[in-house]
Write a structure and sequence with these properties.
InterPro entries (chains A, B): DprA (IPR003488), DprA_WH (IPR041614), DrpA_SLOG (IPR057666), WH-like_DNA-bd_sf (IPR036388)
CATH topology of the largest domain in chain A: Rossmann fold
CATH class of the largest domain in chain A: Alpha Beta
Distance between the termini of chain A: 63 Å
Number of strands of chain A: 11
Strand order of the largest sheet of chain A: 1-2-6-5-4-3-7-8-9
Largest interface: A-B, 22 and 22 residues
Number of domains of chain A: 3
Shape of chain A: globular
Family (chains A, B): Belongs to the DprA/Smf family.
Oligomer: homodimer
Domain DprA winged helix (chains A, B): 310-369
Order of helices and strands of chain A: HHHHHEHEHEHEHEHEHEHEHEHHHHHEEH
GO biological process, one term (chains A, B): DNA-mediated transformation
Largest sheet of chain A: 9 strands, mixed
CATH architecture of the largest domain in chain A: 3-Layer(aba) Sandwich
Domain Smf/DprA SLOG (chains A, B): 104-298
Strand content of chain A: 5-15%
Structural class of chain A: alpha/beta
Helix content of chain A: 40-55%
């Protein structure tokens, strides 16, 4: 049963959803401390600390909560709040381990539409993602994997985009399976426009959700932010096809940060649409060739096989680009600048600067033309002596 | 300069080359202890220990040495003996670490033909191998890789077969690069017959060699035995395409046993000709997509990055199938019966019995539906606690 919320509480959540660009850890902290109604009141009146004020002052006088909720009701949608039974508590708990960093953090509240429950999905789901510029091979594989997954009661989560995302959603729908589209804008803004009908079908038979209130248009940084939710609600992120710079690689990086399994489908080495997958595979992603492989990986979700903890304190003084690059270094072994670019979602030319900073701060080290996380000297010496 | 051998020494080597099916560690030990001439004399007269007698009695009265050497001379070929400058001493030293097991061990002597020197090759070579049933994709990739390798002065070693092997040899030749065919029969027995012209070209511009004396016909076990030499003289074994049961997977297993880098080229998951490659990649093979990747791997050869030592003593009481299966278990993590079959070269149905024996002797353990090398209980407990 979904909890029935008091109207004032709903309005408070709707107001809070728009007042700061998500995720906003300061706003989340306030809501957790005083509840949504009081939090909304304080924000509206400007009675918040300086940092939260900076994040909310531009929009604090905008209150479209009533209209937003009416639009949601007209579409037969619902708010999913942290108090709701449907809130995927365990899935979002993964953000706790990822630390309070920019763009990291659970959503405040979700705008949702569709008969499938998010808490059910998060129990057993795989993200099937990839490039919009998919090849016929990639679309075929995405469809085969999605069909196989829903046959085995694994929900297919994706981003609703052209190419791989669309092929996965469509195949899941045509098998009467659960599929979930996570949007990077308002629930009333179908994006891409050419997928309006597909998104409508997903909202009737599966689930569409977003952390953005109605009317918000997708933007590049919102796609990257949205990707963390695609990764969070799925046990494994499977990249079917991706170029060397691809949003799908960003979803994979989120999955790794959140302790999810990252998997990739190999393809012809002659196809640039598989180059990102091959880079991921080199970087430790699981190689999957069929739905059964993924089912096995999703089955491991409960184990929360988070990577070895990294020295979080040393990272405190770093900027966001350095953190992104650091996160993109493999837990074991060394990797190339190109592979770091893929994993971090940064262009290769923007990776070198942060690497240099990580090197001088002793967090990363060169290994020939490759880069690795810097280890204690003794461990490195032991490793070297084994190779000689 | 190749050492000029005394005729009686040559005849002794030629006689010894035929008298036991190679590799015969007992015969090698005798030769090392008393030299080839005395060893040949003792074998001929039956003055050897029981075990060596068993290996030599069937053929000890056959002496075709003079005729074999004349045939070799007519072809412009040569014997490469352990005393020769051309003997790839470092490459064959890898057999020392692999232990005195059936079918393991360096060759006694090699029959060779071609202007390329084996010691030069072994300094910087990659084995490019794969299925005879190659697809156009696989043949194209094999040719591209071989061309890229020889351009970077890396010799291309292969087995002269149809499919991937042939594509690699041909591309290397057409770039005027060094290519080496290792035969599973006599140097005068071109196999497959359809590759007579190709093998002739290799023997004129590259190198053809074999441990079998003239007239010996290839047989299934000789291909498997030959594969160890393909692996031994190359720094890395690259499998371009291979089905789930393939001789190429056997070459890869040899490469791993000998501490060589194992690499595989990914391909479409819809192609059964890439299924063996994907299994190898899951099992820890390096993913390569272009010649530069391989050059980098071959460059690491000098490091002799042999895997962690395994408890050799516990294996002493085991049969050959159990050893093969044990060797096929990954150094780290667990694997499936199908993947063990690929890595061991045994049919899946012949893997289960040996696995059961390895389990009861405490050498392997189940991990769900997978199998792993059994570790000390404390290490296992630590690992489990990390996952929970």
């Amino acid at each position: 049963m979904t909890t029935i919320l008091d109207e004032s509480v709903c309005r408070a959540w709707a107001y809070l959803s728009r007042v700061a660009e998500p995720p906003c850890p300061q706003l989340a902290a306030l809501v957790q401390s005083v509840g949504p109604v009081e939090a909304a009141d304080r924000v509206r009146r400007g009675l918040v600390n300086d940092e939260l004020a900076r994040h909310t002052e531009a929009r604090r006088e905008i209150d479209r909560a009533a209209a937003d909720l009416e639009l949601l009701a007209q579409r037969g949608g619902r708010l999913i709040t942290p108090d709701s039974d449907e809130w995927p508590l365990l899935a979002f708990a993964a953000f706790d381990g990822a630390g309070a960093r920019p763009r990291v953090g659970p959503p405040l509240v979700l705008w949702a539409q569709g008969p499938v429950r998010l808490d059910d999905v998060a129990q057993r789901a795989a993200a099937v993602v990839g490039t919009r510029a998919a090849t016929p091979y990639g679309e075929q594989v995405a469809a085969d994997l999605a069909a196989g997954l829903v046959e085995r009661d694994v929900a297919v989560v994706s981003g609703g985009a052209y190419g791989i995302d669309g092929a996965a959603h469509r195949a899941a729908l045509s098998c009467d399976g659960s599929t979930v589209a996570v949007l990077a804008g308002g629930i009333d803004i179908p994006y891409p426009a050419g997928h309006s009908a597909l998104l409508h079908r997903i909202s009737r038979h599966g689930l569409v959700f977003t952390e953005y209130p109605p009317g918000v248009r997708p933007a590049r940084y919102r796609f990257l932010t949205r990707n963390r939710l695609v990764a969070a609600v799925a046990g494994a992120a499977v990249v079917v096809e991706a170029g060397l710079r691809s949003g799908a690689a960003n979803t994979a990086a989120w999955a790794r940060t959140l302790g999810r399994v990252v998997a990739a489908v190999p393809g012809p080495v002659t196809s640039s649409a598989s180059a990102g997958c091959h880079a991921l595979l080199r970087n430790g992603a699981e190689l999957v060739t069929r739905a059964d492989d993924i089912v096995e990986l999703v089955g491991r979700v409960g184990e929360f096989a988070v990577e070895e903890p990294r020295p979080a304190t040393a990272l405190d003084g770093l900027g966001e680009a350095e953190r992104q690059v650091y996160e993109a270094l493999p837990g074991r072994g060394a990797t190339t600048v190109d592979e770091i670019a893929v994993a971090s979602g940064l262009a290769a030319e923007h990776v070198l600067g942060p690497l240099a900073i990580l090197e001088v701060t002793g967090l990363a080290e060169r290994d020939g033309g490759r880069w690795r996380i810097a280890r204690a000297r003794s461990a490195r010496a032991a490793q070297t002596s084994r190779l000689v």
